Amino acid sequence: MKDAAVFLDFTSEVLEFLIKNHRLPETNKKALHDSLIEKKGIFIKLVHKESGKSLGTEGHITADRAVYLNIRDILMQLVKGKDLSGTTHEDYQIVLSFPSPIKSCKDTTTVKLGEQGVFFRYMELFSTVLPQEPKENGWDLAETLDVLIKRAGLNPTLFDWDNALFFTFTTDKITS
Protein backbone atom coordinates (compact mmCIF):
# COMPACT_ATOMS: atom_id res chain seq x y z
CA MET A 1 0.00 0.00 0.00
CA LYS A 2 1.18 3.50 -0.82
CA ASP A 3 2.56 5.33 2.24
CA ALA A 4 2.44 2.22 4.45
CA ALA A 5 5.51 3.40 6.39
CA VAL A 6 3.86 6.78 7.03
CA PHE A 7 0.78 5.15 8.57
CA LEU A 8 2.80 2.68 10.66
CA ASP A 9 5.25 5.34 11.86
CA PHE A 10 2.47 7.71 12.93
CA THR A 11 0.56 4.90 14.67
CA SER A 12 3.73 3.77 16.47
CA GLU A 13 4.54 7.31 17.62
CA VAL A 14 1.05 7.90 18.98
CA LEU A 15 1.01 4.49 20.69
CA GLU A 16 4.40 5.14 22.31
CA PHE A 17 3.24 8.52 23.61
CA LEU A 18 0.04 6.97 24.99
CA ILE A 19 1.97 4.23 26.78
CA LYS A 20 4.40 6.69 28.37
CA ASN A 21 2.07 9.60 29.12
CA HIS A 22 -1.44 8.09 29.38
CA ARG A 23 -2.79 10.75 27.04
CA LEU A 24 -2.73 11.67 23.36
CA PRO A 25 0.12 13.78 22.02
CA GLU A 26 -0.41 17.21 20.52
CA THR A 27 -0.52 16.91 16.73
CA ASN A 28 0.56 19.69 14.40
CA LYS A 29 -1.68 19.09 11.38
CA LYS A 30 0.54 21.27 9.19
CA ALA A 31 3.53 18.99 9.86
CA LEU A 32 1.69 15.80 8.89
CA HIS A 33 2.23 13.88 5.67
CA ASP A 34 -0.60 14.48 3.18
CA SER A 35 -1.75 10.85 3.37
CA LEU A 36 -2.52 11.27 7.10
CA ILE A 37 -4.85 14.18 6.38
CA GLU A 38 -6.87 12.26 3.78
CA LYS A 39 -10.31 11.11 4.84
CA LYS A 40 -10.11 7.34 5.29
CA GLY A 41 -11.71 4.62 7.32
CA ILE A 42 -9.29 2.47 9.31
CA PHE A 43 -9.26 -0.45 11.75
CA ILE A 44 -6.39 -1.06 14.14
CA LYS A 45 -5.49 -4.29 15.90
CA LEU A 46 -2.74 -4.42 18.53
CA VAL A 47 -1.16 -7.76 19.50
CA HIS A 48 1.48 -8.19 22.20
CA LYS A 49 4.34 -9.89 20.33
CA GLU A 50 5.60 -12.04 23.19
CA SER A 51 2.30 -13.30 24.61
CA GLY A 52 0.26 -13.19 21.39
CA LYS A 53 -2.55 -11.54 23.37
CA SER A 54 -4.63 -9.05 21.39
CA LEU A 55 -5.58 -5.74 22.95
CA GLY A 56 -8.51 -5.78 20.55
CA THR A 57 -9.56 -4.33 17.23
CA GLU A 58 -11.33 -1.01 16.87
CA GLY A 59 -12.05 1.14 13.87
CA HIS A 60 -14.08 3.43 11.68
CA ILE A 61 -15.57 2.04 8.47
CA THR A 62 -16.46 5.41 7.02
CA ALA A 63 -14.12 7.86 5.37
CA ASP A 64 -15.66 10.92 6.99
CA ARG A 65 -12.61 12.21 8.94
CA ALA A 66 -8.89 12.62 8.48
CA VAL A 67 -7.20 9.27 9.08
CA TYR A 68 -4.79 10.73 11.67
CA LEU A 69 -7.79 11.66 13.85
CA ASN A 70 -9.20 8.15 13.51
CA ILE A 71 -5.82 6.62 14.43
CA ARG A 72 -5.59 8.76 17.56
CA ASP A 73 -9.15 7.97 18.68
CA ILE A 74 -8.85 4.24 17.99
CA LEU A 75 -5.54 3.91 19.85
CA MET A 76 -7.04 5.70 22.83
CA GLN A 77 -9.96 3.22 22.83
CA LEU A 78 -7.62 0.23 22.55
CA VAL A 79 -5.35 1.19 25.47
CA LYS A 80 -7.99 2.70 27.74
CA GLY A 81 -8.05 0.93 31.10
CA LYS A 82 -5.20 -1.43 30.23
CA ASP A 83 -1.96 -1.69 32.18
CA LEU A 84 0.78 -1.27 29.58
CA SER A 85 3.49 -0.29 32.07
CA GLY A 86 6.88 -1.73 31.21
CA THR A 87 6.07 -1.93 27.51
CA THR A 88 6.83 0.19 24.47
CA HIS A 89 5.22 0.38 21.05
CA GLU A 90 7.87 -2.09 19.85
CA ASP A 91 6.29 -4.78 22.06
CA TYR A 92 3.14 -4.71 19.91
CA GLN A 93 2.41 -5.85 16.41
CA ILE A 94 0.30 -3.19 14.73
CA VAL A 95 -2.19 -4.28 12.08
CA LEU A 96 -3.82 -1.49 10.09
CA SER A 97 -6.75 -2.32 7.80
CA PHE A 98 -8.08 0.29 5.40
CA PRO A 99 -11.62 -0.56 4.20
CA SER A 100 -12.85 0.03 0.68
CA PRO A 101 -16.19 1.79 0.26
CA ILE A 102 -19.02 -0.49 1.40
CA LYS A 103 -21.33 -2.20 -1.12
CA SER A 104 -24.87 -3.29 -0.41
CA CYS A 105 -25.26 -7.03 0.06
CA LYS A 106 -28.82 -8.24 -0.54
CA ASP A 107 -27.90 -11.93 -0.20
CA THR A 108 -25.53 -12.77 2.64
CA THR A 109 -24.83 -16.21 1.14
CA THR A 110 -22.73 -14.41 -1.50
CA VAL A 111 -20.25 -13.07 1.08
CA LYS A 112 -16.75 -14.33 0.31
CA LEU A 113 -15.39 -15.15 3.76
CA GLY A 114 -11.71 -14.35 4.03
CA GLU A 115 -11.91 -11.85 1.15
CA GLN A 116 -14.74 -9.56 2.20
CA GLY A 117 -15.60 -7.95 5.48
CA VAL A 118 -19.21 -7.40 6.48
CA PHE A 119 -20.78 -4.25 7.88
CA PHE A 120 -24.16 -4.75 9.54
CA ARG A 121 -26.75 -2.13 10.34
CA TYR A 122 -30.09 -2.51 12.08
CA MET A 123 -31.85 0.76 12.86
CA GLU A 124 -29.19 2.74 14.77
CA LEU A 125 -27.15 -0.32 15.74
CA PHE A 126 -24.21 -1.52 13.71
CA SER A 127 -21.16 -3.78 13.79
CA THR A 128 -18.34 -4.98 11.58
CA VAL A 129 -16.40 -8.16 10.88
CA LEU A 130 -13.11 -7.65 9.07
CA PRO A 131 -12.20 -9.97 6.18
CA GLN A 132 -9.55 -11.84 8.19
CA GLU A 133 -11.67 -12.45 11.31
CA PRO A 134 -13.65 -15.54 10.15
CA LYS A 135 -10.45 -17.36 9.21
CA GLU A 136 -8.63 -16.29 12.40
CA ASN A 137 -11.54 -17.53 14.53
CA GLY A 138 -12.68 -20.54 12.47
CA TRP A 139 -16.15 -19.09 11.76
CA ASP A 140 -18.40 -20.21 8.93
CA LEU A 141 -20.92 -17.79 7.40
CA ALA A 142 -23.67 -18.51 9.95
CA GLU A 143 -21.26 -17.95 12.85
CA THR A 144 -19.96 -14.75 11.23
CA LEU A 145 -23.50 -13.37 10.93
CA ASP A 146 -24.24 -14.35 14.55
CA VAL A 147 -21.10 -12.47 15.66
CA LEU A 148 -22.22 -9.37 13.75
CA ILE A 149 -25.65 -9.45 15.35
CA LYS A 150 -24.27 -10.04 18.86
CA ARG A 151 -21.67 -7.25 18.44
CA ALA A 152 -24.55 -4.91 17.66
CA GLY A 153 -26.13 -5.93 20.97
CA LEU A 154 -28.92 -8.05 19.50
CA ASN A 155 -30.01 -11.64 20.06
CA PRO A 156 -29.53 -13.72 16.86
CA THR A 157 -32.41 -16.09 17.72
CA LEU A 158 -34.89 -13.20 18.09
CA PHE A 159 -33.50 -11.19 15.22
CA ASP A 160 -35.70 -9.51 12.57
CA TRP A 161 -33.76 -10.30 9.36
CA ASP A 162 -36.21 -8.38 7.15
CA ASN A 163 -35.12 -4.99 8.46
CA ALA A 164 -31.37 -5.64 8.54
CA LEU A 165 -28.89 -4.11 6.14
CA PHE A 166 -25.69 -5.88 5.20
CA PHE A 167 -22.77 -4.44 3.28
CA THR A 168 -19.47 -5.91 2.14
CA PHE A 169 -16.03 -4.37 1.76
CA THR A 170 -12.42 -5.37 1.26
CA THR A 171 -9.37 -4.06 3.07
CA ASP A 172 -5.79 -3.13 2.37
CA LYS A 173 -3.85 -4.49 5.33
CA ILE A 174 -0.50 -3.29 6.68
CA THR A 175 1.31 -5.12 9.45
CA SER A 176 4.33 -3.87 11.42
From TrEMBL:
Protein name per UniProt: AMMECR1 domain-containing protein
Residue ranges crossing the lipid bilayer per the database entry: none
InterPro entries to which the protein is assigned, alphabetical: AMMECR1_dom_sf, AMMECR1_domain, AMMECR1_N
Domain AMMECR1: 1-176
Classification via Gene3D superfamilies: Hypothetical protein ph0010, domain 1, Hypothetical protein ph0010, domain 2
Annotated signal sequence range: none
